[in-house]
Amino acid sequence: QVQLVESGGGSVQAGGSLRLSCAASGRTFSLFPMGWFRQAPGKGREFVAAIGPSDPSTTYADSMKGRFTIFRDNPRNTVYLQMNSLKPEDTAVYYCAVRLGSDWDYWGQGTQVTISS
Fold it and tell me: Looking at residue 56, what is its pLDDT?
């Protein structure tokens, strides 16, 4: 049973930082890409960042480059998202996901991030 559990969300002022964590269980996650997505109120889910299995290569959405960093701790089956220089438009529910095949197959329940101006 694959399970992803996010934590670390909260409320901070613009310019602040947060670190999100996603603890995975049920597979050997070091073999698979993992990613972060977000969904703001009234908007669709958007890609934030992804990280390869053991390389680990990383990919970011343009608006997050230079502010967000994705990294993983494979022995702990955990992927992180370090978010700096946060802006009010970063307010969203953040989800982690794992890609076991050709698509993002499993998702966490999400963690709320609220940035005040």
Answer: 76
